[in-house]
Amino acid sequence: MASANFSRDVLEMFYGQNEENQRLRRPLRPNRRINFVLNRNDFNNWIRVWKMEVWRGNKDLFRFLQNNKDEFIDICQQEVDDLKSAKIQFALNVRFRIDRNGRIEHMDHYFNRMQPIIFNEDNINGFNNFLNQFVDEVKGEIEAWSERGSGWVVDEILEAFINVVRY
């Protein structure tokens, strides 16, 4: 009985609630799924969080964006195709380090774009600019910290997120 409930819960997580004899929709997954996974799907598909575990040692935001841009865009396009209109927000979890008297300290910081952007079929081609703008904002915040003499430097990018809300 427990395994049947678990199977039903997993199916509902990917397909939503299903009445008997109703055809299942296609599951939520990117076309070229390599790194992103659907981490959370709440409120009857109104909120979705895609999460990417980033390879260890990845420090360069620009290179990270260039290597993963297609995956970000594929997921965003899939979400707009599925939801027709969506608010999308990117986020990064970054680890910083500092050397204080020979002792290394670490700090994790979550960067996100405060205002999500509304995407629909009319402005679907704006993902590339939105992603570039997000990376520029994160780089600007990191540079502002460095200019104030904090001493913290990027150790590695830990995770990337795409937050999607039905609009």
User: If you average the pLDDT, what whole number results?
Assistant: 79
CATH class annotation = Alpha Beta
Task: Estimate the global geometry from the Cα principal axes.
Answer: elongated
Portion of residues in helices?
25-40%
The number of E-state strands comes to 6
Short description:
With 167 residues, the chain is of the alpha+beta class. Helices cover 35% and strands 35% of the residues. A hairpin with a 4-residue loop joins strand 1 (36-42) and strand 2.
Describe the structure.
It is a single chain. With 167 residues, the chain is of the alpha+beta class. The protein has a single domain, classed as Dna Ligase, domain 1, CATH 3.30.1490. Helix content is 35%, strand content 35%. It contains 3 helices and 6 strands. The chain has helices spanning 2-15, 61-83, 127-147, and strands at residues 36-42, 47-53, 85-100, 103-112, 117-120, 153-166. Strands 1, 2, 3, 4, 5 and 6 form a 6-stranded antiparallel β-sheet that branches. Strand 1 and strand 2 (47-53) form a beta hairpin. Helix 2 (61-83) packs antiparallel against helix 3 (127-147). It is elongated and about 55 Å long. The chain starts with a helix and ends with a strand. Residues 1-6 and 29-33 have low confidence and may be disordered.
